[in-house]
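DM from R.C. (forwarded with permission)

"hey, sorry to bug you on a friday — could you get me a structure for this? deadline for the figure draft is monday and I only need the backbone to look sensible"
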Amino acid sequence: MAEYRFDLTGSAERLKRAMDDTSPLMRQCGALMLATSQEAFRLQRLGEREWPAKYPSMGQPFINIAGALEDWNSGRKSPKPSRFQARPANVDEGLRGGVWGSLTFDTAKDTARAGSNKEYAGRLQKGGTSAQIITSGAKAAIKDWLWTKKGKPKAGRAGYVRHLNQLLHKSVHVQRVIARPFLGFTDPLTANLIKATQFYFQGAQRERT
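My reply, with the result:
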């Protein structure tokens, strides 16, 4: 004789134990959510929503005004080379710093969360405005970077005058930040979360009592 059977009582007990503490499943879900957010920075899009380049309407020559101002405010005489590149957006130090490097996840027995604790992360996600102080040292550095002692643009820098000259006549630089979402339930993430949940409860069903 050969047979197999389905024990409704035992199955219900196993499912109840699995439901009482889903932390193993939540850790898998948190890791999937984190991976999706990290991928957004690499691919410059979240799912089908592509991120605009930095200053998409600027044209040539390109300069990341906010990034360059940050450099000058910090005491640099020239902007970092990356300030002259429109891509990648929202990436300065990569995984070493910034929002990308701060991404993490945490879980409870029935919850998974992923995100960043950076103060400005919400602006990158949803858009908004940013404000930067323009120090006197930054203004002096900008003038030195743009102009010769005779008051003419330095070689190769005439095109930047229209972008940077405005900074010399105010104390705060305010600009609009374009939304480039990195948190969200994409179709692949949703499918993977469903799949992980199915495997988790299938495993609970197979567990011996």
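R.C.: lifesaver. The chain is about 45% helix and 10% strand.
me: no worries. Confidence is low (pLDDT under 50) at residues 4-8.
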